[in-house]
């Protein structure tokens, strides 16, 4: 059983290795996204709208982890690129929805399969069973870091 000092060192080493792995994988993803003239936030909004359909602007912020001011900026940029439009809700005119335009849907249909492959390639250094183990362990680590007590997975 490792002593307290060994555990502290392992914790620091885990943090560094985890951060470097995250940076390597996201760097590949970001380069691919940028090659299509988008930033990661724009891509995240397009991804959400493509897979989930029209969304209220407030919900986009929750799902893509953006502030309300940033949502407006990103939606404006995507609207200026003719990739999405805003529509007022029929039930509540205070609620504005964003939805993909035909051009936005076409673009995402073209770029998503390639991006999906970039992600697959970026994590291809692990065998399938190792990926399953990593998912389980990283979920456990994330829950513990959030202070959640039920760590059963």
From TrEMBL:
One annotated GO molecular function: DNA-binding transcription factor activity
Question: Where would one find the signal peptide in this protein?
Answer: none
Q: Which residues cross the membrane?
A: none
Tell me yes or no: is Ion transport among this UniProt entry's keywords.
no
Q: Which UniProt keywords apply?
A: DNA-binding, Transcription, Transcription regulation
Q: Which residues form the HTH marR-type domain?
A: 11-143
Entry-linked InterPro entries: HTH_MarR-typ, MarR/SlyA-like, WH-like_DNA-bd_sf, WH_DNA-bd_sf
Keyword Plastid listed? The answer is no
What's any GO biological process attached to this entry? response to stress
| Protein's name according to its UniProt entry | MarR family transcriptional regulator
Lineage of producing organism: Bacteria, Bacillati, Bacillota, Bacilli, Bacillales
């Amino acid at each position: 059983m490792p002593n307290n000092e060994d555990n502290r060192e392992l914790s620091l080493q885990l943090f560094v290795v985890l951060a470097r792995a995250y940076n390597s994988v996201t760097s590949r993803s970001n380069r691919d996204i940028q090659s299509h003239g988008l930033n990661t936030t724009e891509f995240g909004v397009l991804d959400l709208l493509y897979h989930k359909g029209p969304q209220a602007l407030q919900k986009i912020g929750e799902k893509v982890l953006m502030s309300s001011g940033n949502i407006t900026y990103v939606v404006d940029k995507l609207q200026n690129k003719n990739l999405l439009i805003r529509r007022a809700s029929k039930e509540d005119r205070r609620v504005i929805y964003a939805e993909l335009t035909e051009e936005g849907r076409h673009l995402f249909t073209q770029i998503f399969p390639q991006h999906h492959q970039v992600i697959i390639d970026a994590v291809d250094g692990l065998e399938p069973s190792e990926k399953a183990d990593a998912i389980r362990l990283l979920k456990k680590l994330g829950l513990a870091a959030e202070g959640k007590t039920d760590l059963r997975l």
